[in-house]
Amino acid sequence: MIRLKDTIHQSTSSFLSSAVRVAEYYGFVPFEEALESVREVRVRTPRGEPSKRGDSEIMFARREERPLAVIARRCAISAESTDAAFLAWRTGGGTWRHRSGMPALTLELHIVGISSAIAEALLIVVTDAITAEAGIEQRILSINNIGSIESSNRYIRDVSMYLRKHIESISPTLRPRAALDPMGTLVQLIERGHPAVSRAPQAMEYLTEDERRRFWEILEYLEIAGLPYELSPHVLGSRDCWSHSLYEISAIDNETGGRITLAFGGRYDPLTSRFARAPLPSVMISITCEMRGRVHIKQKSGEQPGIYFAHLGSEARRRALPVLENLRKEGIPVYQGLLHERIGDQMALAHKRSVPYILIMGHKEAVEGTMLVRETATNSQEAVPLPELTNYLKRRRIVTDLQVPSLRN
């Protein structure tokens, strides 16, 4: 949980307002607004009969997972007749207390409808930017992968066998759970610092080659974005809720030297697919902050961006995140189409926005470290080295308002 005394903020309202501005720069919109926009999308392909399964049979391994079931159901219902993707933020909590006893509130970021690794990478980059802007300097990103349902089944089978071998060392109050919910039991043991945890099976050892390649894509995004990370087998959650990637961002407690968890998330496809007509890729991260003072979110208004950032090819997509983060830090608002793979879709959105300038990064530009700046009125373009991009945009008066507004992607 983020403690305000560890940040530059005096109130929860101040932290949330800053965090939402960062999220909206990257195209996240309020959750209700995102669901409404999805409902308005023309029906494309029927997805079959809706699932009648509920959440009563879900084995929740973490406290944070219970509210997610409600969100997953709402996402599934709204997206059941369309292939549209959306990015959304929402706040939760306000009436519950963190395990430390302090009243807490969460800021959740969701990306629904995107199965590629860019979704996880974008959430992690945005959350890192939010915590950095809050003044939290020593941040630690821990990431794990539990694979598909088939891989996690093999993993949980061995976890169950391991717990049976060490049942005598487990607290009597926790022993009954070990037989019914091995994963939840292991999570509890990790939180309690049980000595047997260090020798327990590790989920990443059960991944298939395809799952390892998928995981490596996420790590490539993080490395190119300059975000250090550690592979941690202790970042776990219920297999009924999560598949593939799980991640946690923590900070060092200056008083105790221990770690304080700031954010947790992962890919919750199994949960949304439980309520949807067909598999629905979904990924999220939840940032927990203590409640102090007002919690009202102040959103700043400003001019709409006059720039659209487009990419062409996987290499350009990987190189795009640090470029966008640099533009954000320099206060240069842009639209972007990172979640779209085809350049045609991105250019169509750029023309729909009627932006006077388009930034284009293809494979050649990504390798050379340049950016094409195209003027839409004349179709003329110029290649600009990335280190000079922000000064070029300001010098050419392409940026008319350097105050980052609330954006709608």
Automatic annotation (TrEMBL):
Pfam families in the record: HGTP_anticodon (PF03129)
Record's GO cellular component terms: cytoplasm
Keyword flag Oxidoreductase: no
Keywords: Aminoacyl-tRNA synthetase, Ligase
Signal peptide positions (record): none
Anticodon-binding domain sequence ranges: 314-395
GO biological process terms, semicolon-separated: histidyl-tRNA aminoacylation
Molecular function per GO: histidine-tRNA ligase activity
Family to which this protein belongs: Belongs to the class-II aminoacyl-tRNA synthetase family.
Name this protein carries in UniProt: Histidyl-tRNA synthetase
